[in-house]
Automatic annotation (TrEMBL):
Organism from which the protein derives: Bifidobacterium avesanii
MF annotations from Gene Ontology: ATP binding; homoserine kinase activity
The protein's name in its UniProt record: Homoserine kinase
Pathway: Amino-acid biosynthesis; L-threonine biosynthesis; L-threonine from L-aspartate: step 4/5
Cellular component per GO, a single term: cytoplasm
Keywords attached to this entry: Amino-acid biosynthesis, ATP-binding, Cytoplasm, Kinase, Nucleotide-binding, Threonine biosynthesis, Transferase
Length: 332
């Protein structure tokens, strides 16, 4: 089957995973996007990919079938029953590469969503996009918010039988594999992302983690991550100071940040500085970006606190709302 649609434009948000306590499970979508447009080639005999890249990665990303968006798009087209066809892909990238803002998850979700846009009319099947993207990425923490928006908690469910699904009385069977739960986020929650001028590969960050952790450290993180949905939607608290205190506690961590700290000394120092001042700061994803979450506007106070870092030329700060929509497409 060849697509009947001429072009699909995809818009995917940046994401921040972990948020301190929620290692490999919690993710947050940010109002900061990569936009990619796919247009079928005029000549149907031309089945190649023509690639333009503007913005982040324009000097480093490949312009052939090895580009992650393109390779994922091809794989998803096969999954959705589309025959191979040629296209021009124009990418306008804003999400920094190898910084902990979900650039690889964005690329994977973009490729799958574009393929779905060509293969089917109507609304996106977000569950199908999430499932395929999580399997390609290998872990769902960044993929989930990129697909669904907002705050997500994701997990890899294993049935008691080891295969198939578990029967749930009065409901749908719970299948094995990746799942995600989407939580609302109070519009008053502000995100501040500090982007450094250096990169850190996810592979190196993974290698720094121990094979085992202390039981006390696991309990510590479980108690903190359980606070996260309430901290991000603190309507029942009512008091802004109490809400920020809950955010501060929810972003505490003993599972990954202490082990990765030697890989990113400037980020570690900035987090310590922000937390000493009472701000809920954490490594964004595997780093080296630094994420700060705050209930209410604190841009001036945070700007003053981090003036030395921002004036050094080694950091820039993004003040971002939380994205509530996830991936979006337009067809033409």
């Amino acid at each position: 089957m060849l697509p009947e649609i001429h072009s699909v434009k995809v818009r995917v948000p940046a994401t921040s995973a972990n948020l301190g306590s929620g290692f490999d499970t919690v993710g947050l979508a940010l109002d900061y996007f990569d936009e990619i447009e796919f247009t079928t080639n005029a000549n149907p005999e031309d089945k190649s990919a023509h690639i333009e890249i503007h913005g982040e990665g324009e000097d480093t990303l490949p312009r052939d079938e090895t580009h992650l968006v393109v390779s994922t798009f091809r794989k998803a087209c096969d999954t959705f029953g589309l025959d191979k066809f040629g296209f021009t892909m124009v990418a306008h990238n804003r999400i920094p590469q190898a910084r902990g803002m979900g650039s690889s998850a964005e690329a994977i979700v973009a490729g799958i969503a574009a393929a779905a846009g060509f293969a089917h009319r109507g609304n996106l099947n977000r569950a199908a996009i999430f499932d395929l993207a999580a399997h390609i990425e290998g872990h769902p923490d960044n993929v989930a918010p990129a697909v669904y928006g907002g705050l997500t908690v994701s997990y890899d469910f294993e049935t008691s039988e080891g295969v198939g699904s578990v029967a749930i009385a009065g409901g749908e069977p719970l299948r094995s594999g990746f799942h995600a739960v989407n939580y609302p986020v109070d519009p008053a929650i502000n995100a501040f992302v500090f982007v450094p001028d250096y990169e850190l590969s996810t592979e190196k960050a993974r290698e720094a983690l121990p094979a085992k952790v202390a039981h006390a450290d696991a309990v510590y993180n479980v108690s903190r991550v359980g606070l996260m949905p309430a901290a991000m939607n603190p309507a029942s608290i009512g008091d802004e100071d109490a809400a920020n205190a809950l955010l501060f506690a929810a972003t505490q961590d003993r599972l990954h940040q202490p082990y990765r700290a030697p890989l990113m000394p400037p980020s570690t120092a900035l987090i310590a500085k922000l937390r000493r001042a009472g701000f809920a700061a954490a490594v964004s994803g595997a780093g080296p970006c630094v994420l700060v979450l705050h209930h209410g506007d604190a841009v001036e106070e945070i700007g003053r606190l981090t003036a030395d870092e921002l004036n050094s030329g080694h950091w820039r700060m993004l003040h971002l709302p939380i994205n509530a929509t996830g991936v979006e497409i337009e067809r033409a």
